Amino acid sequence: MNTITIYAFGSVIIVSLISLVGVFALGLKQNLLKKITSFLVSLSVGALFGDAIIHLIPQAFSEIENTATASLFILIGIMLFFVLEKFIRWHHSHEHDCEDDKCRAKQNNKIHPMGTLILASDSAHNMIDGVIIGVSYFISIEIGIATTIAIILHEIPQEIGHFAILLHSGYTKTKALLLNFISSLFAIAGTAIVFIFGQTISLYIPILIAFAAGEFLYIAGSDLVPELHKTSNTKQSLWQFIAIIIGIAIMFALLVFEI
């Protein structure tokens, strides 16, 4: 095993372990966790919109010569997740058709489809991160380390937000932590793909980035924002707004670390 392989897989394992940041929530009381979750879901809205608009879309447009092609893959990402959510909701409603109040109450306690969507989106995004790390180390160890640091700084707020969304979707703290960790392992798969197929995989990164941007825009706008609108409490709404601004600000701040 050569030095580049050790550095690349060591880096991607560290990135994957960041998903366990939610372990700090395991000891929190339910009421406190609920308040923090509401704030973090709002933070995730800002982070997802910010990541898509500030980072992913500009990068896709800069690396894909035909802007119409870049736009098309962004739209494909949006539409694919629209279809995916339709399928999940359709399956959910047919699996739990209700004719009485007791059944409906039980159905309301089921997992919200946005939990499944965020896991699918996060898995795809983590795989892209793994590919980027692998390609960066092929260029040089220095660039690989710098890229890893940038991704780590990017992943910390994102993983906290995604953990909060899973809790909000109805998962238990333990299951949310486990599923978040499993989705993070796709980063290792991404790096492995680079070492199997070589740098030629880098040709597809811009398309994957455009696709991921569409996913993030759909989840933030279609699933998370409507959830935030379910409260009309002035104080809570103000905190939601502040959290969204913080999420966007974090994404702007991360521009400093981009290569």
Structural features, described:
This protein is mostly helical. It is built from ten helices and no strands. The chain has one domain (41-92, 110-257). Helix 2 (30-63) packs across helix 10 (234-253), helix 5 packs antiparallel against helix 6 (141-168) and helix 5 runs antiparallel to helix 9. The two termini are 27 Å apart. Residues 101-109 have low confidence and may be disordered.
Radius of gyration: 19 Å
Count of individual beta strands: 0
Overall pLDDT level? 79
Secondary-structure element order, N to C: HHHHHHHHHH
**Structural class label:** mainly alpha
Number of helices: 10
The proportion of residues in beta strands is under 5%
Q: Ends: how far apart? A: 27 Å
Q: Roughly what percent helix?
A: over 70%
- Number of discrete domains: 1
| Largest sheet, strands/sense/barrel | none
Keywords:
259 residues; mainly alpha; 10 helices; globular
Outline:
The chain has 259 residues and is an all-alpha fold.
